[in-house]
Amino acid sequence: MARLVAFFAICLLSTSIASASNPLLVEGKVYCDTCRCGFETPATTYLPDAKVKIECKSRITEEPTYTVEGVTNSQGEYSILVKSDRGDDVCDVVLIKSPDPTCAKPSAGRDRSRVTLTRNNGMISDVYFANAMGFIRDEPLASCDEILRQYQVPDEQV
């Protein structure tokens, strides 16, 4: 029995040491919804230097427990290190600021992305992918009418 307890103690200790020395990585993209349609299209542009943050809250008290910010690269992609397992938290990646004043309003429903940041979920990777998040352009591009036609279903197919 003592060997079994020692075995579980070693497993638990090795898991916590691995978590502390091996941060989690959250990756995602930030875009400008150039056609104001609520999703990515061929006219979508990705925003360099957009600011995002990961905010985690306690599942029980909903009090903030962890926050870290990041900035997108030249392709509108971000990579943010999370230094510890957040298995007891609810975490979201949230838009903070767009670098483009003509595309600065967060798109409703695409302004945050929920991420589950724990190693205790069967995943073998330390990389977690968040859904793309977007800001909405003040005025749609002139080419958007043509682009949006490709999404329409002819009446006879409905």
Instruction: Find the CATH superfamily.
Output: Immunoglobulins
Largest sheet: 6 strands, mixed
Helix content: 10-25%
Order of helices and strands: HEEEEEEEEEEH
Number of strands: 10
CATH first level? Mainly Beta
Please tell me the total number of domains. Answer: 1
The whole-number mean of residue pLDDT values reads 86
What is the fold named in CATH at topology level?
Answer: Immunoglobulin-like
What share of residues are in beta strands?
A: 35-45%
Can you tell me about this structure?
- Helix content is 16%, strand content 35%.
- It has 158 residues and is α+β, with helices and mostly antiparallel strands.
- The strands form 2 sheets. Strands 1, 2, 5, 7, 9 and 10 form a 6-stranded mixed β-sheet that branches. A 4-stranded antiparallel β-sheet has the order 4-3-6-8, with no helix packed on it.
- A hairpin with a 5-residue loop joins strand 3 (51-58) and strand 4.
- It is elongated, with a radius of gyration of 20 Å.
- The termini are far apart.
- The relative contact order is 0.24.
- The model is unreliable at 4-9 and 11-19 (pLDDT under 50).
- Keywords: Disulfide bond, Signal.
- This is Allergen BRSn20.
- Belongs to the Ole e I family.
- Pfam families: Pollen_Ole_e_1.
